[in-house]
Amino acid sequence: MARLYEPPRRFTWPHYRLMQWLIPRLLTVRGGWRVRGVEHVPVSGGALIATNHLSHLDPPVVGSALPRRTYYFAKSELFSNPIFGFIIRKCYAFPVKRGAADRRALKAAIELLAGGELLTMFPEGTRSLTGELGEFDLGAALAASRAGVPIVPCALTGTNLLLPPGAKKIKRGKVAVSFAAPIDPLQFGEKPGKEQLQLITDQVKAAIAEMKAEHAGFFEDARTNVEES
Q: Where would I find the beta strands (DSSP E) of 65-201?
């Protein structure tokens, strides 16, 4: 059976590095770009980035805010087009089946995390149409606990205004990204049960909600249009 994800290598594909360099500069001139809390992202070793989901822009925006490369879960339907599927796979995305327990994707996630990679997951499972936080599933807490790596909560604000559902082009506007202190998924033991996984997930969601509330000041300040990181 073919490997589900792009094999980890010492080098990172140049087009991924180009994205990390280009996106912050484009967003800065098109409205504003702010990143906070990068110091909470481990400089080495595995970690799971758990973030809210607003727009198709979210994966490249998170990837551009991080100092390291990250793998991503992406819905399996995105890989149905061979060309587009090839492109996003080379950007470190790999497929997951939504609405069902995808054991193969979970195994791949644990392998990547245990192997020292970053993995970005969207616990809401789909984009929020209101901008408010939806229900979080337990997948991020489960993957992180099985791999024995920390969860870094990440909050996104503004990407849904730049690229709303159905939009044909990216609009002007601000984007804010924040990272919170890592959460230990093994705080309840090596194999937390469902209740413990829910408690960990609630901690992640609360951290994201707190950071999103802090973003309000950035969006209220019309004069803020330069990158802060």
A: 70-75, 93-96, 118-121, 151-157, 173-179
Query: Counting beta carbons within 10 angstroms of the beta carbon of residue 158, is it exposed (0 to 12), middle (13 to 18) or buried (19 or more)?
Result: buried
- Residue with token string 């709303």: 164
pLDDT score recorded for residue 2? 63
CATH hierarchy code of domain 31-220: 3.40.1130.10
Contact status, residue 128 vs residue 160, Cβ threshold 8 Å:
yes
The residue extents of the domains of the chain are 31-220
**Neighbouring-strand partners of residue 208:** none
User: How far lies 130's CA from each of 43, 74, 114, 127, in Å?
Assistant: 34, 21, 35, 9
Q: Dihedrals φ, ψ of 46, to 5°?
A: -75, 145
Query: 113 and 144 in contact (C-beta within 8 Å)?
Result: yes
Q: The tokens of 67 are what?
A: 């100092």
For residue range 39-51, list pLDDT tens digits in order.
999 999 999 999 9
> CA 49, CA 152: separation in Å to the nearest integer?
5
State whether residue 192 is helix, strand or coil: coil
Residue 162 DSSP SS3: helix
Q: At 112, which helix (H) or strand (E)?
A: helix 103-114
Structure tokens of 86? 């090839």
- CB-based contact 158:219 (threshold 8 Å): yes
Q: What is the total residue count of the chain?
A: 229
What pTM value is reported for the model?
0.90
Of 157, 192, 197, 160, the closest CA to residue 177 belongs to 157
